[in-house]
Each structure stands twice: as structure tokens, then as C-alpha cells.
Design the sequence.
């Protein structure tokens, strides 16, 4: 009977050691993944000020392009009216 108890104790010890080793490997993998994620977060934090400055420049350019497109639209309307007048003058002649 003592041999059976000893055998079960050894089996349980081996199971606990195996589970402990498995947990150790998983914690190591998680730690590695966390280090990589922290590196990515640090890179993103370094890029955020540059991204903010770029967004400000794009916003400024958008305002300038809006003005330019409005001017082009006005010019297009003017030229369209001018060509329409020329066509009317040509048909009246």
C-alpha cells in the first residue's frame, strides 16, 4: 500500500513540475509579447507629435486649397458665361 501512495505522490509531483514548467514557458512568451507591445507603444508615442504637426499642416493646406478651388470655380463660371455670350453673339451675326 505504501508503494502505491509513493507512486501516486511521484506522479503528482511530476504533474505539478510539468504544469509549473508549462506555466513558466507561457509567462515567458507573454512577457516577450508585452515587451514587444511596449516597444510599439513607445514608437507610437514618439510619432504622435510629428503626426499632430502634420495634421495641422494638412488642415492649413486644406483651407488654402478650398480658397483656390473657390477661385477656380468662380473663374470657371466666368469663362462659361463669357463663352456663352460669344456663342450668342456668333449666332446673332
Sequence:
Amino acid at each position: 500500500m505504501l508503494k502505491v501512495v509513493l507512486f501516486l505522490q511521484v506522479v503528482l509531483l511530476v504533474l505539478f513540475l510539468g504544469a509549473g514548467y508549462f506555466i513558466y514557458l507561457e509567462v515567458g512568451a507573454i512577457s516577450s509579447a508585452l515587451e514587444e507591445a511596449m516597444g510599439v507603444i513607445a514608437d507610437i508615442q514618439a510619432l504622435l507629435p510629428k503626426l499632430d504637426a502634420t495634421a495641422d499642416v494638412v488642415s492649413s493646406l486644406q483651407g488654402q486649397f478650398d480658397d483656390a478651388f473657390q477661385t477656380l470655380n468662380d473663374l470657371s463660371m466666368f469663362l462659361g458665361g463669357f463663352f456663352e455670350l460669344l456663342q450668342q453673339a456668333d449666332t446673332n451675326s
